[in-house]
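Structure in, sequence out. Go:
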């Protein structure tokens, strides 16, 4: 079974964000779409929560070495977001589940306190309308 490494904010947020990053190029767009597809379908691919750079980051032009250098958030700020999302979901780094299991957990946990209080992408996020409790 295929295993994909994914940062907490990619795991949680990609299914809700209504934003595109054309400046990151076609390779990134395709990788991001694949991640979104995995987080929408109840597939049986394994997704492992990774600390730092993940498989999606590796396709991004903002990656320099093993650091995110995005104008929208440095590696330091992204790691803080990741930590808050982990805390909200009640999971540790290294937690590995199928996409179907992640979808179920996200449905149970969303929206997180992070979504309500700290998320910089709130204006382009559908988390508040997408998850029926």
């Amino acid at each position: 079974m295929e295993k994909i490494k994914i940062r907490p904010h990619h795991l949680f947020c990609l299914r809700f964000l209504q934003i595109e990053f054309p400046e990151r190029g076609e390779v990134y767009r395709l990788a991001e779409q694949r991640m979104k597809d995995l987080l929408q379908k109840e597939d049986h691919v394994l997704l492992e929560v990774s600390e730092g750079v993940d498989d999606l980051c590796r396709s991004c032009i903002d990656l320099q070495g093993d650091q995110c250098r995005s104008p929208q958030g440095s590696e330091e700020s992204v790691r803080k977001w990741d930590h808050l999302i982990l805390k909200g979901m009640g999971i540790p780094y290294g937690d590995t589940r199928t996409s179907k299991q992640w979808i179920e957990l996200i449905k149970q946990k969303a929206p997180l306190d992070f979504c309500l209080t700290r998320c910089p992408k709130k204006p382009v996020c559908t988390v508040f309308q997408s998850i029926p409790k």
